[in-house]
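User: quick one, sequence for these tokens?
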């Protein structure tokens, strides 16, 4: 692979970066203020305004590879753009490139019927609605997705759904209109990986109830949020099934590859922002007779941060390159490696930045505490570290087992 970005990508990097400089960073305080005005669960005016600006600038739906719906970028080409967006808490949404909508739109592009695309994909691509992904359950260890207990039962021309999900991110947003739910249609199948299916569930379907919003280290992440949702005798048309019964794991693997690497791309952007904040802080404070940045311990921490960010960026780009050239299945080790490495790297950088800010680092005056909470969650989201490490180890051991 080549280590330099193409002229096309460099031009897009500049356009996205210029848009962030002109419109996103200057409005972060407005974004936070509007969240705290009145009902925290209403969309902010500033994000809706900036979405229209991004769309008019042609910086819209950049994430979709191999699709006529996106910008025609590969995963490798999209990576540096996602990193730039990830530097701001509202960056990705402004460009209609935020989770879980990106993953859900990829599911609909790859596996949705023409009718499903028209009803749900088109408004998602337009940024008119939002979506959620209902997979994790509170009653079982969902790191092993075969444990999922939600039932999807055929009844004539409908399916009836019963179950309880949580960490259904985005379900608290009033713009959320559709859920992609994973449940079991064949719980007694001898093939544990053919028991599950995915189905489209409009959130206003009778029997769907948002029970509560969950906090992350005390943050509610409004207006996006993370919901616990119950499904009691929820009836949807059989045409809402995605791809077919028993294809849930197949869809999940297709969805989670890009979703995982998008998280890693954004996380590198978060780490870069934290390092930038740390350096600026250290050069504007004096302790023990000299600028803090001149103390050796801080120079060591800055150097470690730069080394580790660069390593993770290269691993992310390698994973993206392999996804583009040999496919997600062959790239599964690289995807798993960066899914473990990127959050751990970013947490270390953010932690040092918090230390540089002292008491200010753990309060809301600077974004570091919120960054830490969000990135720490990624060590659980889309599979915990332990699951990815197990996969990496199995693939490594297989190289040394005689055939």
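Assistant:
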């Amino acid at each position: 692979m080549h280590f330099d970005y193409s002229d096309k990508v460099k031009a897009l990097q500049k356009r996205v970066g210029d848009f962030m400089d002109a419109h996103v960073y200057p409005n972060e305080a407005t974004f936070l203020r509007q969240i705290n005005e009145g009902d925290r669960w209403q969309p902010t005016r500033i994000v809706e305004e900036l979405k229209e600006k991004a769309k008019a600038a042609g910086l819209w739906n950049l994430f979709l590879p191999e699709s006529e719906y996106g910008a025609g970028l590969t995963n490798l080409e999209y990576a540096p753009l996602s990193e730039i967006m990830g530097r701001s808490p509202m960056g990705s949404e402004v460009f209609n490139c935020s989770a879980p909508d990106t993953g859900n739109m990829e599911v609909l592009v790859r596996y949705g019927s023409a009718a499903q695309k028209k009803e749900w994909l088109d408004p998602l691509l337009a940024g008119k609605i939002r979506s959620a992904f209902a997979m994790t359950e509170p009653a079982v260890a969902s790191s092993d997705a075969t444990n999922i207990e939600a039932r999807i039962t055929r009844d004539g021309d409908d399916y009836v759904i019963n179950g309880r999900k949580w960490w259904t991110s985005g379900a608290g947003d009033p713009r959320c209109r559709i859920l992609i739910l994973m449940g079991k249609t064949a719980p007694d199948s001898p093939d544990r990986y053919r028991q599950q299916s995915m189905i489209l569930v409009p959130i206003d379907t009778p029997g769907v109830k948002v029970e509560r919003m969950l906090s992350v280290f005390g943050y509610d992440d409004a207006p996006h949020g993370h919901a616990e949702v119950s499904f009691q005798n929820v009836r949807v048309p059989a045409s809402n099934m995605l791809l077919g019964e028993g294809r849930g794991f197949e869809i999940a693997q297709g969805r989670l590859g890009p979703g995982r690497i998008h998280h890693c791309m954004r996380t590198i952007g978060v780490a870069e922002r934290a390092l930038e904040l740390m350096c600026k802080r250290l050069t504007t404070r004096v302790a023990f007779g000299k600028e803090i940045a001149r103390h050796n311990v801080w120079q060591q921490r800055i150097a470690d941060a730069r080394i580790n960010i660069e390593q993770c960026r290269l691993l992310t780009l390698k994973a993206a390159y392999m996804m583009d050239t040999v496919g997600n299945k062959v790239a599964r080790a690289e995807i798993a490696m960066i899914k473990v490495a990127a959050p751990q790297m970013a947490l270390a950088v953010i932690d040092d930045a918090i230390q540089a800010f002292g008491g200010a680092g753990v309060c809301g005056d600077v974004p570091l505490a919120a960054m830490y909470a969000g990135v720490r969650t990624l060590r659980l989201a889309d599979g915990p570290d332990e699951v990815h490490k197990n996969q990496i180890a199995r693939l490594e051991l297989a190289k040394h087992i005689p055939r």
